[in-house]
Amino acid sequence: MDLPQMPELMGLSLLLGLLALMATAAVARGWLRAEEEIRSAGQKANGVPLDKSLKSKKQKQQQRIRKEKPQQHNFTHRLLAAALKSHSGNISCMDFSSNGKYLATCADDRTVRIWSTKDFLQREHRSMRANVELDHATLVRFSPDCRAFIVWLANGETLRVFKMTKREDGGYTFTATPEDFPKKHKAPVINIGIADTGKFIMTASSDTAVLIWNLKGQVLSTINTNQMNNTHAAISPCSRFVASCGFTPDVKVWEVCFGKKGDFQEVVRAFELKGHSAAVHFFAFSNDSRRMASVSKDGTWKLWDTDVEYKKQQDPYLLRTGCFEEASTMLCRLALSPDAQVLALASGSSIHLYNTRRGEKEESFKEVHGECITDLSFDITGRLLASCGDRAVRLIHNTPGYRAVVEEMQGLLKRASNESTRQRLQQQLTQAQEALKSLGALKK
């Protein structure tokens, strides 16, 4: 039997190899075609092309992230000292402690934050968190001894007391008292306060009711303001007075009277601020309670001397009237510096600072917050103005306050009779001028 020749064997091997490659390629093409058919079937079932469906899925994820973490409102200004940004919800109220060491803020994120004021001009702003269980606070106020604070509960519609206990590491533990105050108000509460003497608590609602409580949650007196509605109410820093404003064109002031042994006696009408021609939006006291400021729907603000003998029927003196047209079209808030030299007015998300001696506007800040401003307050030194209206507290340098000090010291220096007085006045003048120079706000 003859063996095949070598060339014929090689040709047969090449033929078999080609056939194997062709079969493999056909199988691979079948797999790819099947995979494409499955993919296109899925796309047809969804009615959306694949790359578009992936794109929409990414967009939904990004939208979900944006909803979970809304963008912080950014405000920049040469006089912005700091922005406190630990809350995840909108801040509705804030309060400086009487010792000047802390700032309390409450928000709809179910927390109250306690900030250290000594960190305000630092890079990092430390805060301690107190949780408001199953509710959130709309108003917050420190106790006079700074060892507790009270809040108004949005859903519970009552007062809750938190005690502050200092830990070994320097922090605090916050504990709510076992029982909240009883429900007494029939309308939403617009403000709360604690007298600096610690003798009573005030709550005011948007109808015409202002309640005076003792610290145990018992109502001592109910004031009917007869103003159709209340827009604001507050306790004076001296703790003698409670005042309210509303639909009527005046601010009504009552004296809360206690006996020599500290027992509650009565609430009596003291005096009124009369001079506006329309409803009063807001008012504030100076630190010594000898001055008051008010802003009205008539488009004006007024500064009053309230250091009067009201028991002899003496009325407060009107010291200054200024124009603020925004007040005629929208609700406004105001804050009076501790020395009554500067008036801060807030309308919408903007703030304006006025010199009360001359009645002139000195600074304006637009769109300070992403929402309408909900609270406005000077710190106890008067050097900073704090505001809230979104998820941050913004602190602004009070340059009109420094200018007022410069103006006052220059006037006093001309009348100074001895060298020691001149040196003291000159030192205060120099400090105020240096502060203005560092802020780029020194007028030449």
From TrEMBL:
<feature type="repeat" description="WD">
    <location>
        <begin position="273"/>
        <end position="305"/>
    </location>
</feature>
<dbReference type="InterPro" id="IPR019775">
    <property type="entry name" value="WD40_repeat_CS"/>
</dbReference>
<keyword id="KW-0175">Coiled coil</keyword>
<feature type="repeat" description="WD">
    <location>
        <begin position="182"/>
        <end position="216"/>
    </location>
</feature>
<dbReference type="InterPro" id="IPR020472">
    <property type="entry name" value="WD40_PAC1"/>
</dbReference>
<dbReference type="InterPro" id="IPR015943">
    <property type="entry name" value="WD40/YVTN_repeat-like_dom_sf"/>
</dbReference>
<dbReference type="GO" id="GO:0030968">
    <property type="term" value="P:endoplasmic reticulum unfolded protein response"/>
</dbReference>
<dbReference type="GO" id="GO:0005783">
    <property type="term" value="C:endoplasmic reticulum"/>
</dbReference>
<feature type="region of interest" description="Disordered">
    <location>
        <begin position="42"/>
        <end position="72"/>
    </location>
</feature>
<dbReference type="Pfam" id="PF00400">
    <property type="entry name" value="WD40"/>
</dbReference>
<feature type="compositionally biased region" description="Basic residues">
    <location>
        <begin position="55"/>
        <end position="67"/>
    </location>
</feature>
<feature type="coiled-coil region">
    <location>
        <begin position="415"/>
        <end position="442"/>
    </location>
</feature>
<keyword id="KW-0853">WD repeat</keyword>
<dbReference type="InterPro" id="IPR036322">
    <property type="entry name" value="WD40_repeat_dom_sf"/>
</dbReference>
<dbReference type="InterPro" id="IPR001680">
    <property type="entry name" value="WD40_rpt"/>
</dbReference>
<keyword id="KW-0732">Signal</keyword>
<feature type="signal peptide">
    <location>
        <begin position="1"/>
        <end position="30"/>
    </location>
</feature>
<keyword id="KW-0677">Repeat</keyword>
<protein>
    <submittedName>
        <fullName>Transducin beta-like protein 2</fullName>
    </submittedName>
</protein>
<feature type="repeat" description="WD">
    <location>
        <begin position="84"/>
        <end position="116"/>
    </location>
</feature>
<dbReference type="InterPro" id="IPR042410">
    <property type="entry name" value="WBSCR13"/>
</dbReference>
